[in-house]
Fold:
Amino acid sequence: MAEPDITFTLNGRTLTAHKGETVLAAALRAGIHIPHFCYHKYLSIVGQCRACLVEVLDAGNGRAIPKLQTSCSTPVAEGMKVSSGNERVLAAHESVFEFLLKNHPLDCPVCDQGGECPLQDQTMAYARALSRTHEVRRTYPPKEINPYIRPDMNRCVHCTCCIRFSQEIDGGGEFGWANRGDRTEVGIFADLPLSSIVSGNVIDICPVGALTDEKYRFTARVWEMEDAEGPCTLCSVGCRQRVWTMDGEIKRVTAGENPAVNDTWICDVGRFGWSAVHGLERIRQPMIREGGALRPASWEEAFGEAARRFAALAERGGGAAIAGLGGAWGANEDALQFGAFVRTVLGSNHLDCRVHPRDIAQSEAQRAAFGAVGGFGSIKRIGRAKTVLLVGADPFEEHPILALQARKAHREGATLISLHPRRIDLRVHSRMIHLTPLPGQEARVLRALARALADAGARVEGEGAEGYRAALAGADPAALCREAGADAEDLAAAARALGEGGAAILAGPGVRDSAAAAEAVNLANLLEAEILFAPAEPNMQGALDMGLHPEILPGGRPLSDAGAREACAAAWGRALPDAPGLSSEGILGSLAGKWEGKGEEGRVRALYLFGADPVGGRPDGARAALEAAEFVVLHASHTSASMAYADVVFPAPTLYEEEGTVTSLERRVQRLGRALRPALDMRVPEPWRVFAGIARAMERPMKGASLERIQRQAAQLAPDYADALARLPGEGALLRRSGRGALRPAELPPARGEEGGLRLVLSPALWLSGPFFSSAYHLWDMPGAALRLSPPDADRIGIGEGEEAEFELGGRTVRLPARVDATLPVGLAWAPEGTLRALGGEALSPGGAPDAGGVSIRVRAAARAGSEA
Structure:
């Protein structure tokens, strides 16, 4: 039961405060400003700047407190009376600000903080008009701390916000005090470089311009720019951010506040990844392939060419000869129209937004258990859980804000459990259990965890309980751990922590196979815990909700439902085919000549790629499929590995340049605030306009002629979106699903024995994987793509940190710098997947059909003849 609010008086005004809330926090929440510097609502209270002094006239017991009190550290008491503006307090404020300015340089005209500087604003409001300082100010030599943050410690007022952030939120602890007395300085340790993926947040929380944005430095002033607030669309978390623009160009991105998602933090990829919008790899005009090369074309010519080729293929083989892939990098409205275009204009149900096999495995596991995809967990729950189980997730590399949420739970006493082949680093030093199975054996460990929990008294009940009990009865935790290469004692400790209740499960991109995905869902059902699946693509959940799935229509209704097809036909103005469609696996297999049927009948011959890069985005590369395709349309914002196979290319805007909505991994719908219109030399229309243009050229016009009309269609076909689209608050609308899912034991993959050599696993790294990020020039200062090796393996091969490693993969020789990584077990190598700038825009993929356990490779030092492993 919630504690009742407390009533107190501030400056004669009656206010309410939550139990334990401080005077400053209650005042700010009520819109009353009290000057402050060291206070931040998401950091610990230190009360050291003294700018927030107030006089407590009555402490709630009828007595005044003689000395002035720091309002940031003074808890509210019932009946308390406080003044923040009497003569005594104002005199104290003047003194404090004069002291803060004693050594602060008066360089406001050249400081990037100018115009949004709390010191500047509060000095004008609370301090003396003239300075009495004539002595030489304290100065520090210039320093560099990383490529993104420019320090000027002469401006520092020792608020320690950066120190507290790095210790409490980020966990790296890079910032700290140096020297003593009047030489005290805030900086980073000489042997501890600032390399955190969330380090840029210190720019936002520094109140005086001592830490500023290196990429934004001297490019604009705050009063010259416009800003748009909305969700970040570079991963599936959906953090709140503000995009600042001037003269048709993005100048910077800063964090926005959404307590349900990111508090007030964003990662450095979200902060600096916008540079891809202005990158040289942007597709700026339509193109048509002639004589083996792409040439520029007008929009009408490109529409006509696509329409002619699609119509000819449909006439030969019906609509089923054409397929559509993608949509997870577009807005919900784009996804809905893409589905309408493929199903009603092209006449095909071969449609899928899940390009990577892991996305199929994860979504189908949810459908089998819950009957729907997504909505069974929340980001806020991760931050409040008593135990957080990370399955195949390395959040700092894949979804950094989820790492901060897990750390938030840990600060409140939670135990963190990681089920991952590597010992992932969440920068905690206690209450973290590492279960490190062999790659592809995660399902075995999850089954062993479930058996241990059942033995400890967890109830196995609900749909499918009988079959699941039988599967658990035949499971021996010790044997499963031995086969998976995990430690049985660590598993027992993890089971004890999970058995205490209050668990939340996060399944990341490392859940690659259907068995691991299904067992993660089973474990969530057994624990009655929330579960989140975290896809790599930013709008995978929204695309699935809008029906970009071969067996699902908008709103989650099955294609086999005649009523659902009729509703879509009424909204879209044309009947849908009722023949089942193919998933991305089936589409690419059919293109490559692997399809069910006789002869050429039923074969997929053409492909529309909307924001998808199957050549770079799949572990098998999908090159053979696109080479065999008779016609390929690529509709994307940036060049990719798949562009070499495109016959017609349409440019697309990025989500910085669109209006509409997106849906995050927790099924939170948020509105895009268009921050930027495409440059005049591009004139790139929204994707739904392009679909309509092709449809007109095919003389099969679409009904969705405006964003508002498409949103009305979405509200009609996906009823749970109706309220969200009608009244969407700034923090978004969380579309939760309830109900316990079915227990469906998976068939465990075969155990893998000891193998010689190295086994390579590819996984996404947020700032490296994909054509958008490889063109974001500000991200080039982050650690580049590398082949990560355990120290013993690096020693055996004879290769050192940063030296170039060479190995054969997918029929070609790959060269990447080596990174010696102590988190890797012996025999395992790791590299980022997808299109990589380090490979000249080529995709890193093993070729063939690699399983979830990776692929065997032999590595050698490229610079010299050496031993292989």
Summary: The CA atoms of residues 99 and 133 lie 10 Å apart. The chain has 27 helices and 36 strands.
